[in-house]
Amino acid sequence: MAEIECMHAGDNLGASEGGKEEGRPGLFEHAGQEAAPPVIVSCPPPLPPPAIPTESAGPGDPLNPELPPLRQTVEAAGKPWWRRYLGPIGAGIVLLLKFGAKLKFLLPLLKFIPTMLKTGGTMFLSIWVYATIWGWWFAAGFVLLLLIHECGHLVAARQCGLNVGAPVFIPFMGAFIALKDAPKNAWIEAKVGIGGPLLGTAGAAVCYLIYIATGQELFRALAYVGFFLNLFNLAPIGFLDGGRVVTAISPWLWLVGAALMVGFLIVQYRVSHQFNLIVLFILLLSMPRVFSLFRKKKPEEEQFFEIELWQRLVMSILYFGLVGVLVLGMILTHFHPADG
Fold first, then answer.
1. DSSP assignment of 85-144, as one string?
2. Hey, which of 57, 137, 174, 193 has its CA 20 to 30 A from 305?
3. What are the b/e assignments for 86-103, b being 16+ CB within 10 Å?
4. CA–CA distance, 150 with 203 (Å, rounded to integer)
5. What percent of the chain has pLDDT over 90?
6. Which long-range contacts (CB under 8 A, 24 or more apart) does 207-214 make?
7. Which residues pair with 123 in a beta bridge?
8. d(CA 206, CA 200)
9. Are 150 and 177 contacting, i.e. CB atoms less than 8 angstroms apart?
10. Model confidence at 166, in pLDDT bands (50, 70, 90)?
């Protein structure tokens, strides 16, 4: 293999512009062959001459001023590859040990990363799915209203001393929070159940106020959907919010909720000739609670529904009053095609 040397100013390259020295081939030419085409090799500029130590440097010493700077670099690069990483790794360990005690306050925040990924990830997934149907702005507002609704449940559960998980979003099914502690009685279950519609109604009302102030139809649509969403969840059946609330009023209202779901399915079938699978799913999952009304209850089940009279009255006022507010909100924000 031909050997290429990188020489500095003042060195003999073996060939001048006018010719070559006798008996020696040029830089890019082997003996007995014609000169190869020129190749441009970029060499680093020579470094300033290092300070000469008091003791004479040996021929293998990298400080030997007789060696060209490029040769010194090549010799330094000849060390094993792993030795080049020991310095940065060691420095990183020293810094970690030095400042690790000051960063201990960040450790409790790490446990919230899975929760943030679970809630945030399912939120963005739902926004993306809804955006394919309604567009990004409406999808983001709709999911935000769902988050406000679920935060109402979360706050109410925490105030009742219940351990509860973070909200999880499921496209076309809404969102939910998982109660890790079962409510001790119907009063606590009703408070957790009505917390979501209360805060969700407030979120829809804010959208309506923004619409009044700006005239943006997007917020009018979000307000209408928000009022409808919370009203639907107050249906007194099964695992919906209304089904939990009426446990503190009268569990027999579950029959009213079942009748409403059946009526909704019939009307929709007559209009569109198809059933709403979500409503059918809710009805089927709610039937065990409805059937429990007609069987003999165990002592602990009867104790669950035993609450004070004032608690029943307060929950009745909150429930039926909130239903009225939501119906009024839907009337105010209903969009007629002739309005556009």
1. HHHHHHHHHHHHHHHTGGGGGGHHHHTTHHHHHHHHHHHHHHHHHHHHHH-HHHHHHHHH
2. 174
3. eeeeeeeeeeeeeeeeee
4. 11
5. 38
6. 207/141, 207/145, 208/329, 208/332, 208/333, 211/333
7. none
8. 10
9. yes
10. confident
Amino acid residing at 133: I
Q: Yes or no: say if 66 and 52 are a contact pair by the CB < 8 Å rule.
A: no
pLDDT at 225: 94
Give dist(CA 332, CA 297) in Å, integer.
44
Tokens of 127: 């926004």
Residue 127 CA to residue 142 CA, distance in Å, equals 8
Tokens for 140? 């983001």
- State the pLDDT confidence band at 245, using cuts at 50, 70 and 90: very high
Residue 150 CB neighbour total at 10 angstroms: 23
For residue 14, give the amino acid letter.
G
- In tens, the pLDDT along 129-163 reads 989 988 999 999 999 999 999 999 999 999 998 88
**Phi/psi of residue 170, each to 5°?**
-130, 120
